[in-house]
Amino acid sequence: MTTGGLIYPDKEPELYSSESDFDDENDTDIPYYEQTVNEIRDGDQYVCMICTVELDSACHMYACDSCYRVFDYECVREWALKSTNKTADKSWKCPNCYKLNHKVPAPKRSTCWCGKVVNPEVNDLDPNSCGQTCNAKACVHGCSKICHLGPHPECLIPVHIKCKCGKHSKQIPCSKSKVLGDSYDCGEVCDLLMPCGKHTCEKTCHTGLCGPCQFVILDSLPCYCGSESKPNIKCSDLNVIDYSKDASGKEWIGVYPCPAVRTLHYSCDKHTYVEYCTSPPSIDKSQACPFSPRKLKTCPCGKNMLKQLDRPRRHCTDPIPTCDNVCEKPLSCGVHRCPYTCHTGDCMDPCLIITKTPCTCHSKTFLTPCQLHDTPHCNVKCESNMSCRRHKCMEICCTGKPTAKKRDKSLFLKKDRNDETLVEPEHICLKQCNLKLSCELHDCTWKCHPGKCPPCLESDPNDLVCPCGKTIVPAPVRCGTKLPPCPNPCIKISEGPAACGHRLGPHKCHAAGTECPPCTANVLKKCRCYKQQEMRTLCLVPADQVTCGTVCDKPLLNCHHKCLKKCHITGDCDTKCTQPCQLKRDTCGHPCKERCHGKLPCPQKLCHEMVIITCDCNRRTMQVECGATSETPSNSTKQKLACDDACATLQRHMELMEAFGMNAKPKTTKEQMESFVLVAKNFDDLKLPYSELTLTIYKRQTRWCDQISTLLNEFIDEPFKLSLHLKPMREPQRQFVHELASAYSFYSESQDREPNRSVYLKKVKSQSKKPDISLEEASELYQQFKTLEKARMQEHYASKVTKTYVNIQVPETSPPPPYQGVNAIVISGVYDSSQMDVLKPVVHDFLKYTLVKSPQYKFLNESNSVLIYPEDLLTMTENSANDMKKVVPFIKTALQEQMLASEISTCQVDGNFTVVPHDS
Questions:
Q1: What is the value of pTM for the model shown?
Q2: Which label site among 190, 575, 677, 909 has the fewest CB atoms less than 10 Å from its CB?
Q3: Rounded to whole angstroms, how far apart are CA atoms 706 and 900?
C-alpha cells in the first residue's frame, strides 16, 4: 500500500503521504482527496485497505463521506455485512476513520462521487466522476463544482442580510451567512416609540419588542385616593383609570393604589363602611344607607318579607328582625352554604365546615376545614413498582399511587414493558442500571430498565489465542467471547516437573488465568496424629488433612474419659467433655447417667434405673425404680413380692409332671393357661387359641377389635344363621378378621373388588365354636408373657456380660518371623556408573506406585550391574516383594527399548549385599 497513515475519527482529515510526494515537488500543495483521484487515474498506486488490490478507473468504488478514503465497492459491502451480523443495532464502521454507519451499500449499485449516476461508465480522465455538476445541498445555491471526491468548496455567491433592528442591510458571501446568520448588530440606538407613547427605546440594535418603558419619573405623583404621593416611579408602573375628586370639589389624577384603608359614612351618618384606594374614590356621606327601611325589605336571609314578621322599622338604626330559617347563603368557598339560623352581619368567613378529604395517595381520609386548600398527606409509603420493575417507590403519600394500582391490575404485553409512556411520571425510575452485562466485565450504562440488559458492544482488535497458540478466534473479538475448548495438550506438560517435583499428568490446554490440575501422584505422608508415618495419599492433599481414621483415645486432662476424635492434630483434644459419666454409683452400682462432671464425685441424686423384684419361687415379677440414694438402699434389696395360691398350684403341677414324665394335653381353662405363662419359652407354649398377630392388633385397636369379636359371638350363638357377610373394609382389617375367624374355626374368604372388598364367613359343621377364653383375657395373658420374656432376656444379657468381663484373657502373641526371600532387583549389562543418571528415572516411574520404600541404587563394578533394593532391606514385607516381582517385566521392556541394559531379574541380598540368584 503506497498511501500513508490512517485517518482517526476524532481528528480533522489530513493529507495522505505517498511515494509520489517524493517524486513530484509540485504535488505537495494538492489536497489529499485530489491526490487520491490522481493515484487512481494512474492505476498502480492507490490500494484498497481491505483487499490490498490497486484501484484504477475501471473499478467500482465507494468513498467514506467522513475521511474520503476510497475502497473497492464489493470489499466494503462484504465488510459492512460481516460487521452488522455482529452488532445489535446493525451498524458498521469505516475501516479507516471508524465512522459509524447504519446503511449497508446495496449490491451492484455503486455510484459516482455525487451519487447521481448508478454504475457510472469508465472515465479515464476523472475516475468515477459522472461529469455533471455536483449540485449538493451544502447551501441554498448548491455545489457548483463538477462531480468530485472530497468536501464541497465554500459558496461565494453574495447574499443580503439585515441588521436586527432592520434599519440597515449589507452583502456577504453565502458561506459566511452560516456563521453570522440572517441578521447582524449595527450598533445604533433603537429610538422607537415605547408603549407609553411619550418616551423612545434607548437599547442598541436588537430583535423583538422593546419591552416595558423603563423611564423613571422623578416628580411626586398622588395615589387614587390622594392620601399619599411618592417620587421615582417607573413609567411602566403608572396606571391612570379616571379623575379623582374629593368632597370640596378638588380634582387630581391618581396613578397608583396605595395601601391605605378609609372609613366612610353612609348618607344616614350613623353607619360606616370601609374602602380601599380605588379610582375614582368615593365621597363621604354620598351613598345611601343599605339599612334604611326603604331599601331593606326582607330579613337577613332573604326568605321572608319584613311585613310578614309584624316588626315594623322606621329608622335605619332599628334592629333588623330575623326568622327561624337557616341562612343558606353561599359562602366564600363557593361550595357550602351558611349553616347558621337567619342572622345579621357577615356569614361564616372563612368557611369552617368540616369535610372528608382523601389524602394525596387516596390511602386514608381526613376531616379537614373547607378553606384548607392544601391536600392532606398521610404517613404511608407508596411501595409501588417503578418503571424498571426492580425498585419500589419509597415516597410518603405519593400522588401517583392511585394510578399505579390501576396499572398493576392491567395486563401489559411483553413488547410494552419498556414503554415508559404507560407508567405515571412519579414512578419513572431515574437510577442507572449498573448491572453486569453478559460479558461479566462491563456495567450496563442504560437507565434502570425492565428485562434483560443489552448485549455488550465492546470489542477487542486483537486475536483471542489459547496458551498453546493452536486455537484462535480472529479479531475483532466481541466482549464476552470465550475461547472454545482447545483439544491439544497443555504446553506446561513439556516444560518439566511441577513445583512438587512430580511430572504433570496429561490434560488439555486451558485458559492462561487458570492453573493446571493438581498433582495426583501417589505419595506417602504422615497423618495428622503421627500414628501412621506412611499414609498413602495423593500429592494434592495438604499435610494437615491426611488422616488415618483411628480414634485418638488419649486420656482427657479434666476427667476419666478418653478423646473420641478421629486422627487430629496433636494437642487438639476436647477441652470440655460432653460424654456421660458412666461411673458406677456407690449406692447401687448402676452407671451414672449425668453429664461428665470431671474429677468431682457423682451427684447424689435418686437412681431412676428399673430393677426387677420377684417372689420366692420367681413366678411373680415386677419392674420398679431403683430409688437408691446415699441414705436409702436400692428397692431390689429391700422389696420382695409375696407368693400367691397360683404359685403353690404351679409348684405342685410341675412336681407331678416331673414325677410322671408325661406331656399333658393343652389346657383350655384360663387358670390352666395362666400356669403356662410362667414356664413358656415361646408363644406356642402358651397354648392360646388366637394367633400372635391377632393379639398384637388387639393391643393397638382394642375398641374396633371388640366390635368384631362381639359380632362373631352373636353370629355363632344363632343356630339357624349359617353365613355372615361383613361390610367392606381395608386390607389390614380383613387380615385381622381372617385371623380371628380361624380361632372360631369359621371358613372365611375375601369377595368383590377394591374398594368394595369385604369378608365372607361361613360356619363349619361340628367344628365352629367359641374359643375357650375371650380375646380380652388372652391379650392379658400375652402381655404378661411379653413382660416375663423381657425380664428374662435382661437377666440373660446381664449375666452374659458379667461372665465375659471376668473371663477375658489377652493371649501373648509372638512377633511374626522375618521375611526371607526376594528383596532386590539386579540389572545386568550396564557399561559404567555414568548410566545411573539415565537409568534411575526410568525405574523410578514404575517403582513409585509400589510398596517399595525409598529404592536405593548401587553399581557393582565386578559384574557391571546395578543393584536396586529398598531402604528397609532386612525388614521388608512379603507384600513389598510381590509388588517388586510384578513390575520387573515392565522395567525390563522399558530398559531394553532404550538399550540401557541387557537383562533384569529379582534376587535375594543379605546384610553384606551378597547377591543370591533367584528366579524372576
A1: 0.32
A2: 575
A3: 94
